[in-house]
Amino acid sequence: MSHRIRKPVLAGNWKMNKGPGDATAFFAAFLNAYRRDENRTVMFFPPALSLAAAQAAIAERGDIMLGVQNIHWEENGAFTGEISAAIAAQANATCVLAGHSERRHIFGETDEEVGRKCAAALAAGLTPIACAGETLEQREAGQLSEILLRQLDAVMDAIPDDADDRLVVAYEPVWAIGTGVNATPADAAEAHGVLRARLAERYGRRQAGAIPILYGGSVKPGNAADLLAADGVDGLLVGGASLEPLAFAKIASA
Ligand code: PGA
What we know:
Strand content: 5-15%
Number of domains: 1
Bound molecules: 2-phosphoglycolic acid
Radius of gyration: 17 Å
Mean pLDDT: 96
CATH architecture: Alpha-Beta Barrel
Structural class: alpha/beta
């Protein structure tokens, strides 16, 4: 894919919200409110069925990328209800979320499956946004690093060694997602440091520095700038606040 990702990356994950008509209405308002900036990347992850409407709405906007929220790792076949990376690519997605905590915790996705999804995405020319994050219990048990590294290792072990320039990572503490309790900039900096150090062990310092690591979890217009300014935070992955065009336009400009 020719899409170059520029940091910061401001990504909206709509989850199971907004059909095609809602997507059209959202972009009419969002594009009005958000000033194009070639030095950052804005991404949206609508429901797959709303991808075409989103694509039509942003046709003129090279600064905005579209992705899907999940894929199956197989290319095609008898997997009722699933979509593959190739299908997503044919529908003009250029990126895909992998291992979002809702996929892991509600749908039982394993580290190994997340790795396979990242590999499938890369093979189809999509950029995977590999999500990692600890639960509150794990954090309180002092397992932050252990959990993050286990989840990141599973991805790095599954993808080709030379895919480092097409990988995006997201730190999403489970306790901060949809709760209104965001990680502090210091919390985010610590976790991003853990992830970045592991990326550096595998790919070298320089390349690790180029891999965007996004923070996600209760990002709002009021905390976006502070989180984005935290050490090692290269972007934001936004759920709830990405559903509202004016709120997300503010975050995307933070
Ligand atoms: P939230 O979700 O912004 O609603 O907390 C973040 C996410 O799940 O990516």
